[in-house]
Amino acid sequence: MPQTMPTFPPLNRHKTNPISLRIWYPRIADDASFDRLLGHLQYIHADRVYFFDNGYMDNYQLAPQTLAERLPILKKRIAKLKEHGIVGGINSGATIGHGGNFAGAERLMDLDWWVANNGDQLVGIACPLGDKFQQWLTDYYRGLAETGAEEIFIDDDLRLYNHGAAPVGDWGCFCPRHLAEMKKRTGLTLTREQLSAEIGKRSPGLVQEAWISLWKENFLHLLGIMEKAVHAVNPKLRLGLMPVQNFIRDFGEDFLQDAIRVISTGNRPLLRTHDYHCQPHEMYPGSGLAAKRTAPPESEHLAEIENTPHNHHEYVRSPKTTRYAILASLALGMGGAAVTFGDDQRDMPWEKAYLDMLRDNDPFFRTVADLVYRDTVLQGIPIRRRAYQRKVRYIDSIENIWNDSIHEQPDSLAGIFGVAYQFDPCPVWLLGEIPATMAPEEIEFTLKRGAVIDSTAVKCLHRLGYGSRLGVKAGQKVPYHRGHRFLPHDLTAPYGGDINALRVNFEVFHLEAEKGCFEEVSEFVSWAGNRVAGGILVQNSRDGRNVILPHALSMSGFAFTGIVNTQYRHLMRRLLAHSLGQPMKLHLEAPSRIWPYYHERADGAAIITLLNAYYDDISDFAIVLGEGERLSGKKVYRVMPDGRLEHRPTLQLHREQNGTVRLRIDKANALMNCDVLVLMIA
Predict the structure, then answer these.
(1) How far from 599 is each of 329, 372, 380, 388, 605, CA to CA, in Å?
(2) Are 275 and 328 in contact (CB under 8 A)?
(3) 3-class secondary structure, 72
(4) Can you tell me the distance from the alpha carbon of 182 to that of 176, in angstroms, rounded to the nearest whole number?
(5) How far is the CA of 71 from the CAs of 23, 154, 254, in angstroms?
(6) pLDDT tens, position by position, 64-115
(7) Which DSSP letter does residue 671 get?
(8) Lowest-confidence region among 11-20, 245-254, 595-604
(9) Which residues contact 39 (CB under 8 A, 6 or more apart)?
(10) Cis, bond preceding 488 (omega within 30 deg of 0)
């Protein structure tokens, strides 16, 4: 029978600092260095710290002799933190390993190493079926638990992808053990080359599904080893997961739920997601919110914020942009932020400006985290990412997971279009290969209700057998176009007649639709303004309120350059509301570069968070809320910089004739540059 998770009281971030710091091991090895660190932690009111057990990104398994040196130091430091009321945790640097052929003595350990699909042995990545590795894993996690750590994070190297240059290090280990196990499961004798070819077909089948099943079972077994090792030492020790592509994209949301149950036994689940990696000023949410929706509601979520230049060596976030990254995660309802400060080479993030920023913003961080995290549900247009699906039946990335995922990021697109969103199995945007992740009943519901469908998704729906149901197909590429003209129509007002200049590489396809079923709301033209091809189609008969785009809608390449303009953003908001058949929960009329999020609380209050990652202070813009009947007449409160929740009389809700309410942000409540504005309507 499935394990039932116990219930826990709601987290109160007023009492628990939402900010935790991740510190590299070299920072704590020397007594004087650790004493300085402890002083810094007390200065900023820290109450939780994770020590890496490795140095600066030496992400390979730690040899017994290395652990014998480091574990006593970790135990001593964690005990000292406890004396000062600070929770001490550990961030494991590597279990399976992040990449092959790392330099360092640890790679000489006698483990069963990963074999790439070309036959290369990738020293530094352990084969998870290996007996030697599983014994090392038991000893390793038992040793971590014996340090007295209250929490231990498993890093994200339990994955198929991103172990090396694709496809050599990806898709899994192709060692003799895996080949033999696949023969047991399929009855087929496959060479490494044959197995790799079957996996690369990007379609369900006996081999694909057996491969996915094998790895899911193996990884759950490894998580079970870790859980037993640590809880034999301390049943209250919390194991945390890092659920990015390894837990959801590789195997599906069902696997994440199983993994959480395995490692959390009797404790509140703990997850750390990797949304704010290295960009100093941008933020791209997604993994955290998808994991939050998938995980049990009592789970605790932290967003990992990298503040060291190991990925993009030319910069580190400033104190202000670090503050923004922290606030962005808290304002999205993540509940906490795990910030990586410093390494064994650089002291810069410990400059006083960073410490002052953390200390001065402590009340603000706590209030925002508590307000958005407790008893709230993310609301907005229903979206779905291909990376997040209930179950995975085949490996759908051939070249590179990061490039592949950027093409279908409807959450980031929602921010670009100024629209609040939620995750849902029946999305209003059908983009790229997203239909391939949906169950037949989900596709039927979505097409009947209505969706904005891009040209790549049109092709995907035809491949899946929904062509006749859709009534339109994408034909040949339009060879010549220089502009996108919006035709006079209710949906294009007030921009009907405007022409947006386009780069030639913005791919547009001829749409071939059933007669009488669709009408055009735009067309593509030459620079002289002459019609070259039809444009966006809106369904006007049969079931559904579908909108068909003659181009891809994505975050990458020239497909992105063709949609980032004021007119297109305005039109997209109209198209989304049209497809849903009702006003959206929240959207911004202007400016579009603000990212809005909308949470509803159990007591009926609405919480709005607005993110401004740009360099301008912004005011005099309108927030439009779709539930006018429920919200009109209520007061608007703002989280002030000192952490107080203050009623703001100049922020008034105005009821519109169409049932929405409008909230205009005035200069007294301006959204400052690189900042977050948090409002509550109650």
Answers:
(1) 14, 7, 9, 21, 8
(2) no
(3) helix
(4) 10
(5) 15, 17, 35
(6) 989 999 999 999 999 999 999 999 999 998 899 887 766 554 556 888 889 9
(7) B
(8) 245-254
(9) none
(10) no
The CA dihedral of 168, 173, 174, 177, to the nearest 10 degrees, is 170
Please check whether residue 513 is in contact with residue 530, taking contact to mean a CB–CB distance below 8 angstroms.
Answer: no
Report H helices in 234-318.
Answer: 253-264, 287-294
Query: Rounded to an integer, what distance in angstroms lies between the CA atom of residue 425 and that of residue 446?
Result: 9
Structure tokens at 613: 């990652």
Token couple for 430: 């059908």
Tell me which H or E stretch contains 26. Answer: helix 26-29
CA 669 – CA 682 distance, rounded (Å):
18
| pLDDT tens string 566-601 | 889 999 999 999 999 999 999 998 766 788 999 999
**Cβ-based neighbours of 251, under 8 Å, separated by 6 or more:** 212, 215, 216, 219, 391, 392
Burial degree of 406 (CB within 10 A; 0-12, 13-18, 19+): middle
With contact defined as beta carbons under 8 Å apart, do 601 and 607 qualify? yes
Partners of 338 in beta bridges: 20, 304
φ and ψ at 56, to 5 degrees? -90, 95
Q: What angle do CA 338, 341, 346 make, to 5 degrees?
A: 165
* Residues 78/80/86/88 CA torsion (nearest 10 deg): 0
* One-letter amino acid for residue 10 of the chain: P
Query: Would you call 601 exposed, middle or buried from its count of C-beta atoms within 10 A (0-12, 13-18, 19+)?
Result: middle
What per-residue confidence (pLDDT) applies to 451? 98
Q: Which two tokens stand for residue 628?
A: 């006018």
Q: What is the pTM of this model?
A: 0.91
Locus of tokens 């997601």: 273
**Cα distance between residue 240 and residue 249, in whole Å:** 18
| Alpha helices per DSSP H over 200-252 | 206-233
For the chain, the first-to-last Cα distance in angstroms comes to 43
In terms of DSSP H, where are the helices of 310-425?
319-331, 352-360, 362-373, 401-406, 410-416
Q: What is the mean pLDDT of the chain?
A: 87
- The secondary structure of residue 618, as a DSSP letter, is B
The tokens of 435 are what? 């239909």
* Confidence check: pLDDT of 142 > 90: yes
Structure tokens that stand for 173 in this block: 């280990």
Taking the C-alpha atoms of residue 177 and residue 175, their distance in angstroms, rounded to an integer, is 5
The bridge status of strand 87-91 relative to strand 151-153 is parallel
Cα(45)–Cα(86) distance, integer angstroms = 9
